Amino acid sequence: MRAVAFMVGSATMFACMAAVIRLASEQLHPFEIAFFRNLFGMAFALPLLFRHGWGLLRTDKLHLYATRCVIGMLGMLCGFSAIVYLPLAQAVTLSYSTPLFVTIGAVLVLGEVVRARRWTAVAVGFLGVLLIVRPGTEGFSAMSLVAVVAAVLSAAVAISIKMLSRTEKPDAIVLYTTLFWVPMSLVPALFVWVWPTGWTWLWIVGAGFFGTMGHMFWTRALKMGEASLLTPISFVQVPIVAFIGWALFDETVGLWTGLGAAVIFASNAYIAHREAQLARRTTTDPDMPPAAGGATAEQPALPESPPRPPARS
What we know:
Layout (H helix, E strand, L loop, with lengths): L1 H23 L5 H16 L1 H6 L9 H24 L2 H8 L2 H11 L7 H18 L8 H24 L4 H21 L9 H25 L2 H8 L2 H13 L5 H30 L29
Helix pairs in contact: 1-10, 1-11, 1-12, 2-4, 2-9, 2-10, 4-5, 4-8, 4-9, 5-8, 5-12, 5-13, 6-8, 7-13, 9-10, 11-13
Subcellular location: Membrane
Pfam family, one: EamA
Protein name: DMT family transporter
């Protein structure tokens, strides 16, 4: 239940972050908003260092942190651009195709075995993505492909987060991420730099606050529970963002976006349900002893490195 509460909190924080990003975009380029989100995010994360002490930064996984942050930075730039140039509900809904890419990545990268039913759920999920993107029609926008790229990169980040969470503290993951992201995001921001004025300062400070809080809640949720079970819960972000888009930006959720969101949600929910079934089977079936490292019948035990991936975004 604590993991569920943290995931709902994370979804709410990320929805609010999307809103202030859109508000800030009236003056600033998405790349510059990303820099300020990371700068102020670091400011909100630094108290973690005073709370835990310098020992929080002690790690032998610095290379994994760096790789995770490079991928995450590219995903952030794509994701922020999608939030600015697409309707909010459409941009956020496409981000929930991440679990589909996580499943594929688990097979290609980690050698996991995925059976027919989950492959079917993945295929159905991609049908939902196609309903939203609608390639070859008048409703197609190239920016929707940028949102899909952000989902792919988010899948890689989700895998690395779960790998790190096996040995690293959630607060260390948050702090290291912000420390890496500030200089990484400054470089592209310099090419589009405009000094913010007026209310824009409030929006970019809010982006840092909501983004950092969402990240904190997310890492804690993944630490406490299986991401495959938490993914459908995080979908609460979609109706929150749809309401914000309607209330602040006079946006409505189109028919195709609504249908695509329903299909993607159903696909994610089934994948999570299947994961839960397999997890229960390995612990209750005397003829199917649980594998090391929490592996399931569909996901055989792997060596200590790398561990099983999550399924979020």
